[in-house]
Amino acid sequence: MNHTPTRRPGIAAVMSFETRKLLAQKRTPITLVVAAVIPIIIAIVMNGQARPPKDTLFGRFIHDSGWSMPLLLLGFAGQWLLPLLTSIVAGDIFASEDQHGSWKTILTRSTSRTQLFVGKTFVALGFALVAYVILATSTIVASVVLIGHQPLVGLNGQVIASHDAARLVIESWASVAAPLLGFTCLAIALSVLTRNVAVGIAAPVALGLVMQLVGALGGVELIRPLLLTTPLEAWHGLFADPAFSGPLVVGLVVSAVWCIVSITIAFVVFRRRDYLG
Amino acid sequence: MRHARTTATSLVLLVLATVTMTGCSGGPTSSTTVTRPRLERSLERTYANRYVALSKVTGHRGVTAKSLDAHAVCDKGGPTVDDAGPGGDWICQVAYTDPNVPNPDGSAKVEMNVHSNDCYTAAGSSKLVGPLNIVDTHGHQVVNPAFEFDGCFNPSGSGTPDGTLIIVNAVPLPGAPVAKPALTLPTGLVTPDGRGRVPLLLTCGDAPTSCSGTIDVTVQGEAASKVTYDVPSGGTKTLRAQLTRGQARDGGIITLTLHERTPPPAPAPT
To answer: Does residue A277 lie in a domain region?
Structure first.
């Protein structure tokens, strides 16, 4: 066990180096600013609409309660925004080294491949969480400031008091963290496998859309719970009366399995690949 | 670069294969979470809550979800379609009690669009709940809370039917001549007895002698029994219609089709 202390600085060094690289790229701060600003613009535009968007859950109540806007946007964000938000970094973090031909330089340093892989993975997961927290906070704060904190109508027609609605909105946004990290792992795997930045960034979004399409079909009930997009809707149960959490638990397990499988494949391929030849 | 292109192509093929496989493996027989009991139990609550909100807007006091005691029965796509799975062809009947708004039909028709994610959009009967925009007690125009509403149900909630039976007026075929029958049929919620028979309170109006004929009883579009009746003019009679054991246990929408033997009353001389 004596070797443990010497390994930790290795991963930390990789993480610090990767974070500095990330911040030096223009798209990283741009993504974070977009995550903060876009919800405010959408909330202003939606609030100005005379006809509320009834096609999406909670859309019909956007003028009645500030708590409905974050839920409408959560339903909307799950369609492609969340996969895109994470894959911008996760889909790039390995493949960009291929693009720049920099593997030889990095792999001849004192850090091991495992440390490099773990460090890059942690940075990608960390970026996903930071971007997501900014998006969620901006959405919720902008909605409440613009519209107010009136009681909300739930998914059994019941009236939910404002303080309960606040808790449920935060819980709902928190519940999509698991599938979001699932998409991060998927993007990392695609980034390692394809060695192509464009595929690493676009493929998770495309796969997300395909999974949603499959999930919306009738007669695929056995596959539906296994899709990574299904947990993005698991929060619906929180707003029912009585509330149910079965889909949230299943969603957590499904997201974890997607993540573990993706990362394992990525790690095995990364360890065995001949970068130096 | 060539390697990347090959990988990208294989990814696209993988996606297409997944879609094709899922498309082929799924069929009408695969188990769905959208079932009649789950939809009915959810709609009862949602309808009652939205109706209470409507009563508040219109100033009807004392209406609560408990006082309404809503019961729902749903049917998907008529008698030929299985009552399970998502779709825009779900029709539900909700029976409830509101002394402020008399309902001679005994139940309200609700059209449902049910999605595969276990959520639905329901449209209430404007005959009973009014139009989309209504005026509240302060004179302000507001959106009618019971006109259209959303709901979601627990996909692992109880799938056991609760045996609710609601009699609904048969809808005449388009273009068929509509003659007002002398016999008035019951509507609304009914409860079967221990032997699976439901009471039918028949009222005979202005018939020259008596009202007589037969009534075909169907539940969810499936034949249950045929009842022969003979009610004196101006009188009432309660007959019992036998249901099958399954129909009495699962409940459903009861439709009564009248075959009158009595000639309809002659038109008044002009």
So the answer is: no
B230: enclosing H helix or E strand: strand B222-232
Residue B3 belongs to some domain of the structure: no
CA A155-A229-A63 angle, 5° bins: 35
Residue B92, strand partner residues: B74, B110
The answer as to whether B238 is a domain residue is yes
C-alpha gyration radius of chain A: 20
Is residue A211 in some structural domain?
yes
CB contact under 8 A, A203 and B53: no
Which CATH number goes with the domain that contains B201? 2.60.40
Cα–Cα distance, B246 to B250 (Å, whole number) = 6
Rounded Cα–Cα distance for residues A59 and A4 (Å): 52
Instruction: Tell me if A128 is assigned to some domain.
Output: yes
Sign of the dihedral through C-alpha A111, A115, A116, A120: negative
pLDDT per residue as tens digits for the range B125-153: 888 999 999 999 999 999 999 999 999 99
Please identify which residue in the block is written with the tokens 């019951």. B186
Residue B160 has pLDDT above 50, yes or no: yes
Query: Which residues are paired to B151 by β-bridges?
Result: B120
More confident of the two residues B16 and B200: B200
Nearest to B120 by CA among B24, B188, B42: B42
**Residue of chain B minimizing CA distance to A200:** B8
**Domain containing B208: what range?**
165-260
Q: Are residues B44 and B145 in the same domain?
A: yes
Q: Is A49 an interface residue toward B (CB < 8 Å)?
A: no
Interface residue of A159, A221, A275 to substitute, partner B, most B CBs within 10 Å: A221
Instruction: Tell me the per-residue pLDDT of B219-230, one tens digit each, with 9 for 90 and over.
Output: 998 999 999 999
Look at residue A248 and tell me if it is in a domain.
yes
- Give chain B's domain count: 2
Asked if B85 and B179 sit in the same domain, the reply is no
Give me the amino acid identity at B100: N
B113 at A interface, C-beta within 8 A:
no
Contact B81, B189 (CB under 8 A): no
Beta pairing class for B165-169 and B188-190: antiparallel
The residue range of the domain holding A137 is 4-272
Q: Are B39 and B112 in contact (CB under 8 A)?
A: yes
B143–chain A Cβ distance below 8 A for any pair: yes
Contact A223/B at CB under 8 A: yes
Name the CA radius of gyration of chain B, rounded: 24
A-chain residues within 8 Å CB-CB of B153? Answer: 240
Q: Do B152 and A193 touch (CB under 8 A)?
A: no
Share of chain A above pLDDT 70, in %: 96
> In this complex, do A219 and B26 lie within 8 Å of one another by their Cβ atoms?
yes
Q: How far apart are CA A123 and CA B165, in angstroms?
A: 60
| A193 inside 8 A of chain B by CB | yes
Q: What is the pLDDT of residue B26?
A: 43
